[in-house]
């Protein structure tokens, strides 16, 4: 079941998003960063991590669980590495500070790495990995999340859906970008199915008794399952180690749920890595080889039901071009929720530019 949507101007949504956060005493520079991460997600078609997140983010301000003006501290034990204490600031603000350190060090030393602690939900991991690709680097970004995923063999959750992203330049093409959760499906898909009373595919989740379920409501009360069983479970734990154990932030199920737990700050950690391609090969040569790699992929005969073979990041790049031109589609529910936040801040909410299915 599809929801009726209406498209809104990118610039209008960006402006109202910035001003909503400024109303909650977020500095202008930080509000621009937050808005950019959210708008970028919508433009690339990742609507679960776009402006729909605004009400959830604001609720953390209402309950005084996020610092609008965090004291971000950066320490370094080795020249190519940085440890960022986010001071319980907004995730995108803390993550951007860490990514800035990574790229600065990559420029100087060929490689840069950073961990961040005392942060919050940071949006899409690809937003940060892409910055590496745009600067002649290959980038990796990951972050543990609040527990919802059962490790292989368990009926109880310990890890989150723990996203990981990697990005690389691709010559004349848009960057190669992998951005995925370690669960079979995003939890947002289950919430959407529950809202419409639809079943979910078997294998996505277990109910609270540890039994496989296709009931979306039962799945939300139970646990998510890792993709590929033990393999996805291992990657989820790796992300917990790098973004949680190594960063000095919460790990092993201790991250608080952004929308359910209002007892204390989330204490999310992140991990970022970027290295210069020039350290191993001339960038021009790498780009030429990437173009050949993509050409070989594109020359493959599509399987039944497919019109063409796409590389990771290509669908999102196409979506970004289309939405930059036509606007960002929002469901009535999402638009109304953001409108409510705007009105509370004494702001108007933009009118849609056209109808979108």
From TrEMBL:
A GO MF term: oxidoreductase activity
Source organism superkingdom: Bacteria
Keywords: Oxidoreductase
Any Pfam family hit: Ldh_2
InterPro entries, per database record: Mal/L-sulf/L-lact_DH-like_ah, Mal/L-sulf/L-lact_DH-like_NADP, Mal/L-sulfo/L-lacto_DH-like_sf, Malate/L-lactate_DH-like
The family this protein is said to belong to: Belongs to the LDH2/MDH2 oxidoreductase family.
Entry protein name: Lactate dehydrogenase
UniProt source species: Terrihabitans soli
Source taxonomy: Bacteria, Pseudomonadati, Pseudomonadota, Alphaproteobacteria, Hyphomicrobiales
